Amino acid sequence: MTTEKKQNRSPRPGETITGKWNGHRYKVLRTIGRGATGTVYLAERRGKKLALKISDQGYSVTAEVNVLQHFSRMGGSKVGPDLIDVDDWLVGAGGQPVPFYVMEYISGEPFLGFLQSRESFWLGVLVVQLLSDLDKLHNAGWVFGDLKPDNLKVMVSPPRVRLLDVGGTTKIGRAIKEFTEFYDRGFWSAGTRKAEPSYDVFAVGMIMLHALYGRRFRRQPGDDLNTLKARVQRLNSPYEPIIIHALSGKYVRAMDMQYALTTLMSTYAQEEKKRQSPKSQPQSPPLTQTRAGRTRVKAKATKKKRIHPFKRVVQEVVWIGVLLVAFYVCMLLLGGS
Description:
With 337 residues, the protein is α+β, with helices and mostly antiparallel strands. It has helices at residues 58-72, 111-116, 121-139, 197-213, 225-235, 240-248, 254-275, 309-336; strands at 16-18, 25-35, 38-45, 48-54, 83-90, 97-104, 109-110, 142-143, 152-155, 160-163, 170-171, 287-289, 295-297.
């Protein structure tokens, strides 16, 4: 594979890319993402859909391939996409070789899209999974860097969050090489852009804030960490202490935030389980005789109490929640052993 910078021509939908060295042929279907280091296309080979990234920066392709190779050696659950092929594409007769690599195409729902159709309890479930993967990445000596919802996808059956673009992945101790301002702690004057686990943890806090707000908000002149804390507090969310600690750098490691979030969800689910136990249920109202001799339930005219959305969802899925939390606690314990 060439490592020199060459002039890149974008392939057209329906065009076939043939590797110079391995000879594998890939039919380009459409563009699925663009970044600072190249463009990712949905491609097909022998009826199987794949993700193919083309870049005119050979050194960037080499670095990303190294990261994907590290991912494959981590063991356990998959952290990022599997690396499938690395080669050069000859653009036209006698053209210059353009480096590309092929990886697993992760099908599923966008991170925010998955949450829009579900209650906020699922935000905690997905973030616990994400923090587990980040902890593995950090232990291997890397920081993801450009962590944002666009670089996350949720596999639906069963729900499982996966990391996508590794273009911003940086060795611990170096300067972050690629980031998106809204999720960058340096942009909010909340820390440096040194590649360390707490940099990714800050981004996780911003992802949670984005998910709860439903949108990204503009940074105004003078906005900083205190501005973010105030926004979190206005949400009146059970996740408030977790997010504020993440933004403030209180969690040095991803597993610290994961443990705090798991504990919060487990405690809340147990409390709701007690509230919903049969002993705490009110007795059925007495039956009274109607004028026509039939019976009906006498209903008391009471003011309807507003239930917080988070409480309502926990009441509805409390048993599922307890099982899910127990499952991820087991994963945490096994991962730490």
